[in-house]
Amino acid sequence: KALVERIPDAPISFEVFSDEFEDMKRQARKIATWGKNVYVKIPITNTKGESSLPMVRELAAEGVKLNVTAIMTLEQVAATVEALDVDVPAVISVFAGRIADTGLDPMPVMRAAVALAARKPKAEVLWASVREVLNIYQARDCGCHIITTPTDILKKLSMAGKDLDDLSQETVAMFYNDALAVGYTL
What we know:
Number of strands: 6
Strand content: 15-25%
Largest sheet: 6 strands, parallel
Strand order of the largest sheet: 1-2-3-4-5-6
Distance between the termini: 60 Å
CATH class: Alpha Beta
Radius of gyration: 20 Å
């Protein structure tokens, strides 16, 4: 609640932590009362692999702003879009970084997710699980509305547009200084 007081005008998401749908619904309804800018994060499934979309449909119909999270497939995106209420803001959090971790290119999934979400004008697609600076540009190019980015990745944005010859020389200097610092000799 202190966080909502400090951030009253920007969307903020709080996740339910139950694995049982009835308790998730209870938690979601309670969390939703914390502020007009509050979204309730609901995982796409519980730990048993049971779909949370019937609950998402029910909560969305009640006007609860939702952030459906841990989405990995286009089928999950499409089903989430169907479950959302056209008049209620929502976030569809697709874990593009984890998709990429499996060796698949997340770009086609993210582009398609944005296209599917357009059927619900108040729904936004979030690129989650950022792994590198490139993901920020990829999210933009796919038309994602939101991206969650760790601080260490944000710090690397200072390298955007850097001359690669200069970066190469800086990297060699870093290697050299690291070797000097440990005192190796041959």
